[in-house]
Amino acid sequence: MSRIALFPGSFDPFTKGHQDIVIRGLSLFDKIIISIGHNTKKDHRYFPVDATIRGIEETFKGYDKVDVVVYNELTAYFAQKHQANYMLRGLRNTTDFEYENSISQVNRSLNKSLETVFLITSPELAAISSSIIREVHRYGGDVSEFVPYTV
Ligand code: ADP
Predict the structure, then answer these.
(1) Per the domain annotation, does 62 fall within a domain?
(2) 145 found inside a domain
(3) CATH number of the structural domain spanning residue 114
(4) Helix (H) and strand (E) counts for the chain?
């Protein structure tokens, strides 16, 4: 049975921290589906979702084990539809842990066959967060050091 993992997130934008988790996850899984959670009517993204998809596709050009999709439903159910028994998440600090701990338990109640696999951030990427990048970009700063594609 192939090991399919969902890597869900807002990815607004997709950062070098996210890229690192996917690349390291490739040694564990046969396929990683980068899943952008987005509700077109309710969510106000800073970076347009289409540009984010293009950027992620460009980042993983030539990686046939990586897919990118947009979804708008419960992650646990979306995983089931894609026969994904694993959820990949990254952990930077205790704040991430508190949050991830709760959602992984709720997700497993909703979908009993779903295991969340956590990778600890690479230390040199630990400070990178989408929210800080949005802030830097909003005030005209150069974010190219933090994002694997041109935003
Ligand atoms: P969400 O909106 O679900 O928090 P994000 O797009 O912010 O989604 O992040 C998706 C996943 O990537 C989360 O598990 C988050 O902890 C992880 N992540 C974000 N930045 C980093 C980083 N610099 N290093 C490792 N993991 C990260």
Answers:
(1) yes
(2) no
(3) 3.40.50.620
(4) 5, 5
Q: Cα separation of 69 and 80, whole Å?
A: 15
How far, in Å, is the centroid of ligand 1 from the Cα of 148? 15
**Is residue 117 in contact with ligand 1, taking CB distance under 6 Å?**
no
Q: Is residue 107 part of a domain?
A: yes
Establish whether 131 is a catalytic residue: no
Domain count, the chain: 1
31 assigned to some structural domain: yes
Cα separation, 59 vs 148, in Å, equals 6
Q: What is the pLDDT along the chain (151 residues), one digit of tens a residue?
A: 799 999 999 999 999 999 999 999 999 999 999 999 998 778 899 999 999 999 999 999 999 999 999 999 999 999 999 999 999 999 999 999 999 999 999 999 999 999 999 999 999 999 999 999 999 999 999 999 999 999 8
Whether 103 lines ligand 1, by a CB cut-off of 6 Å, is no
Tell me, using a 6 A CB cutoff, whether residue 92 lines ligand 1.
yes
